[in-house]
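Session log. Operator J.P. requested a structure for one protein chain; no other inputs attached. Running the standard single-chain path with C-alpha coordinate output.
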Amino acid sequence: MAKLRGLVLVGVLGAVLFTASPAVASPVRPAAVVVTVAHAPASLVPAQTPNPGPVLDPAQTDKANSQKTKNKLIAGVVAVVLLGIVIWGRRIRSKKAKKS
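Structure written below.
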Protein backbone atom coordinates (compact mmCIF):
# COMPACT_ATOMS: atom_id res chain seq x y z
CA MET A 1 0.00 0.00 0.00
CA ALA A 2 2.90 2.34 0.72
CA LYS A 3 4.34 1.69 -2.73
CA LEU A 4 0.99 2.54 -4.31
CA ARG A 5 0.80 5.81 -2.38
CA GLY A 6 4.35 6.66 -3.44
CA LEU A 7 3.61 5.90 -7.08
CA VAL A 8 0.45 8.01 -7.01
CA LEU A 9 2.29 10.90 -5.41
CA VAL A 10 5.16 10.70 -7.91
CA GLY A 11 2.68 10.49 -10.78
CA VAL A 12 0.74 13.55 -9.64
CA LEU A 13 3.87 15.58 -9.00
CA GLY A 14 5.34 14.54 -12.36
CA ALA A 15 2.15 15.51 -14.17
CA VAL A 16 2.10 18.89 -12.44
CA LEU A 17 5.71 19.61 -13.26
CA PHE A 18 5.46 18.59 -16.90
CA THR A 19 2.21 20.45 -17.56
CA ALA A 20 3.29 23.59 -15.71
CA SER A 21 6.16 24.38 -18.06
CA PRO A 22 5.56 27.61 -19.97
CA ALA A 23 4.78 27.32 -23.64
CA VAL A 24 7.32 28.73 -26.03
CA ALA A 25 5.64 31.27 -28.28
CA SER A 26 7.19 32.04 -31.61
CA PRO A 27 5.79 34.69 -33.90
CA VAL A 28 4.02 33.46 -36.98
CA ARG A 29 5.39 34.94 -40.18
CA PRO A 30 3.07 34.87 -43.18
CA ALA A 31 4.49 33.34 -46.33
CA ALA A 32 4.94 35.62 -49.30
CA VAL A 33 2.22 35.21 -51.91
CA VAL A 34 3.31 35.53 -55.53
CA VAL A 35 0.64 35.78 -58.21
CA THR A 36 1.65 35.51 -61.84
CA VAL A 37 -0.69 35.63 -64.81
CA ALA A 38 0.76 34.71 -68.18
CA HIS A 39 -1.99 35.94 -70.54
CA ALA A 40 -3.43 39.04 -68.85
CA PRO A 41 -1.96 42.51 -69.29
CA ALA A 42 -0.28 43.99 -66.21
CA SER A 43 -2.84 46.81 -65.95
CA LEU A 44 -5.75 44.39 -65.37
CA VAL A 45 -4.11 42.42 -62.57
CA PRO A 46 -4.44 44.21 -59.21
CA ALA A 47 -1.44 44.14 -56.92
CA GLN A 48 -2.23 41.77 -54.07
CA THR A 49 -0.54 42.10 -50.74
CA PRO A 50 -1.06 39.58 -47.97
CA ASN A 51 -3.04 40.81 -45.00
CA PRO A 52 -0.73 41.21 -42.02
CA GLY A 53 -1.50 38.95 -39.11
CA PRO A 54 -1.71 39.99 -35.48
CA VAL A 55 1.41 41.47 -33.96
CA LEU A 56 2.44 39.68 -30.78
CA ASP A 57 4.26 41.65 -28.12
CA PRO A 58 6.92 39.41 -26.52
CA ALA A 59 6.59 41.17 -23.17
CA GLN A 60 2.86 40.47 -23.01
CA THR A 61 3.37 36.88 -24.15
CA ASP A 62 5.98 36.26 -21.45
CA LYS A 63 3.73 37.85 -18.84
CA ALA A 64 0.77 35.70 -19.92
CA ASN A 65 2.92 32.56 -19.88
CA SER A 66 4.24 33.31 -16.40
CA GLN A 67 0.71 34.00 -15.12
CA LYS A 68 -0.53 30.73 -16.64
CA THR A 69 2.40 28.84 -15.11
CA LYS A 70 1.68 30.37 -11.72
CA ASN A 71 -1.98 29.36 -11.95
CA LYS A 72 -1.05 25.80 -12.91
CA LEU A 73 1.41 25.54 -10.03
CA ILE A 74 -1.22 26.76 -7.56
CA ALA A 75 -3.75 24.26 -8.91
CA GLY A 76 -1.14 21.49 -8.71
CA VAL A 77 -0.26 22.32 -5.11
CA VAL A 78 -3.95 22.36 -4.16
CA ALA A 79 -4.42 18.98 -5.87
CA VAL A 80 -1.45 17.48 -4.01
CA VAL A 81 -2.73 18.83 -0.68
CA LEU A 82 -6.20 17.39 -1.30
CA LEU A 83 -4.68 14.05 -2.29
CA GLY A 84 -2.64 14.08 0.93
CA ILE A 85 -5.78 14.75 2.98
CA VAL A 86 -7.58 11.84 1.30
CA ILE A 87 -4.67 9.44 1.86
CA TRP A 88 -4.28 10.57 5.48
CA GLY A 89 -8.02 10.11 6.12
CA ARG A 90 -8.00 6.61 4.63
CA ARG A 91 -5.00 5.67 6.74
CA ILE A 92 -6.76 6.83 9.91
CA ARG A 93 -9.95 4.99 8.92
CA SER A 94 -8.03 1.75 8.22
CA LYS A 95 -6.25 1.97 11.58
CA LYS A 96 -9.59 2.38 13.38
CA ALA A 97 -11.02 -0.57 11.46
CA LYS A 98 -8.06 -2.79 12.44
CA LYS A 99 -8.46 -1.90 16.15
CA SER A 100 -12.11 -2.95 16.29
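Operator note: The radius of gyration is 28 Å.
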